Recover the amino acids of this structure.
């Protein structure tokens, strides 16, 4: 009996010792995991605080832009300045289409710009309108006004529109988010080196993947904005005309004079076009003239050959039945008279 009591006490003692050891081990593991999670949460909290302290709020950003200041996010400064996207659209007309395009392309190249897209519609014989061209030009922002002035000098401007979009606040907001995420990324890389378990590495790597994707998206957006800010856009529509549109309202006498000249031009143009059409139609006129000539000649020949023959009488009017009987009786009477004489 005493042996069983002693054995039970020993087993109970060993169980208590093993349970305490396993509890201590699991506590250490949980403490390690909890520490990594807390560090990640601290990094995210710090990034959020940096975003809120960068001054991308509307009031601070406006003051910073007006003062030409810079805002520090950690150790990374944000350059603050007006971010303006300028776009100009123009419709122009010219009497010298080729010369105008050649001069404009030279000016664009000389200003450091380039043609992003273009298309040209050529005139044809059956279309009275002149040629037309559309150009989308990208030009350095500081040379935009100079290029617009050159276009105004070289061509007659019929329509013009300017648009300026201020993206300063949005640009600073994106830049602040990017820098905050970069700071969080650096802190997570340090934690990755200190991680002791596979679970901690997976957690940190997952968060790093999200951060890297967001940073790449922000950088792509900022590059697009930089291109639009640094290079302004000019939409240019060029039309070839025979007479430029007057910029001012003409007087009554000027209207009469212009109307008379225009109508005279239309008359001259009508006569010229008629002469051109007649000259163009000469091959068809010759062909139909030859066909009519041979048709008439063949017709005359047939009439001469069939004249005085039975075929010719087929074209005469067919007599009625009553007249036929009378003619038959007359023929019989004449025949009897001839017989009697004989």
């Amino acid at each position: 009996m005493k042996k069983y009591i002693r054995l039970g006490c020993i087993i109970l003692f060993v169980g208590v010792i093993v349970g305490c050891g396993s509890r201590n081990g699991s506590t250490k593991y949980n403490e390690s995991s909890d520490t990594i999670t807390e560090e990640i949460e601290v990094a995210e909290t710090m990034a959020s605080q940096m975003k809120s302290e960068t001054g991308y709020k509307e009031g601070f950003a406006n003051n910073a832009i007006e003062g030409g200041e810079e805002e520090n996010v950690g150790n990374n400064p944000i350059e603050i300045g007006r971010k303006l996207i300028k776009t100009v659209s123009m419709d122009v007309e010219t009497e010298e289409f080729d010369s105008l395009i050649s001069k404009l392309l030279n000016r664009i190249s000389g200003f450091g710009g380039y043609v992003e897209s273009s298309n040209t519609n050529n005139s044809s014989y059956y279309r009275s309108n002149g040629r037309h061209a559309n150009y989308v030009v990208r030009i350095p922002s500081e040379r935009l006004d100079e290029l617009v002035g050159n276009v105004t000098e070289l061509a007659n401007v019929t329509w013009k529109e300017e648009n300026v979009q201020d993206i300063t606040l949005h640009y600073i907001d994106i830049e602040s988010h990017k820098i905050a995420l970069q700071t969080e990324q650096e802190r997570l890389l340090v934690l990755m080196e200190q991680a002791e378990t596979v679970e901690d590495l997976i957690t940190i790597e997952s968060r790093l993947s999200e951060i890297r994707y967001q940073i790449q998206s922000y950088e792509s957006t900022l590059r697009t904005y930089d291109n639009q800010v640094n290079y302004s856009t000019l939409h240019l529509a060029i039309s070839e005309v025979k007479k430029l549109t007057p910029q001012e309202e003409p007087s009554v006498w000027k209207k009469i004079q212009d109307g008379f000249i225009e109508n005279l031009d239309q008359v001259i143009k009508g006569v010229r076009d008629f002469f051109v059409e007649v000259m163009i139609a000469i091959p068809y006129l010759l062909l139909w003239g030859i066909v009519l000539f041979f048709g008439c000649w063949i017709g005359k020949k047939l009439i001469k050959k069939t004249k005085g023959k039975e075929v010719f009488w087929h074209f005469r009017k067919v007599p009625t039945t009553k007249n036929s009987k009378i003619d038959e009786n007359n023929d019989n009477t004449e025949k009897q008279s001839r017989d009697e004489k004989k």
